[in-house]
Amino acid sequence: MTTPTPAPTWTMAPPWAAKTPVDYARDHAESAWRSHLRFRAYADAPATAWNVTTAPDGQPMLTCRVDGAEALEALETFGGDGGTLLFPGDQRPVMDLSEPSRVACVWRTDGVWVSLWTVESAAPAPLPAPASAPPLPPIPPQRVKAPTSRLRRFFRPTTPKEN
Hints:
Shape: elongated
Order of helices and strands: HEEHEEEH
Oligomer: single chain
Number of strands: 5
Structural class: alpha+beta
Low-confidence stretches: none
Largest sheet: 5 strands, mixed
Mean pLDDT: 77
Strand order of the largest sheet: 1-2-5-4-3
């Protein structure tokens, strides 16, 4: 007699389980963000873990923080390009500046709000002007020298032919 094989224990939903609209929205947003970074060659703007909350209108909302030196520029171009594939009823990505010191790119897909956001960094202080070198003294006029005798002989029309 053989012992029965125990049922597998899943830490996540099994692969054949039905996906929810939130799962589809997360997969779509991650794919669109990775494609945008690769296409625009942003090396330092990774997305961190996704959080699921409820938006003020009662719809589910996915939020994800984008960190890195190029995060703000990448978010601005992502929102400006339209970055995602839209279906009927979806909303285009827009920049949301409603919270102080936070810039977000927000859109709606399949009834799920998606928000990629980053902390708005303060504008870098302007670099000090480089110390200018003292002005150079004016160059004194130089006398043009007469051509050498060799040149005078070469250009002289009375030079006899050698042959």
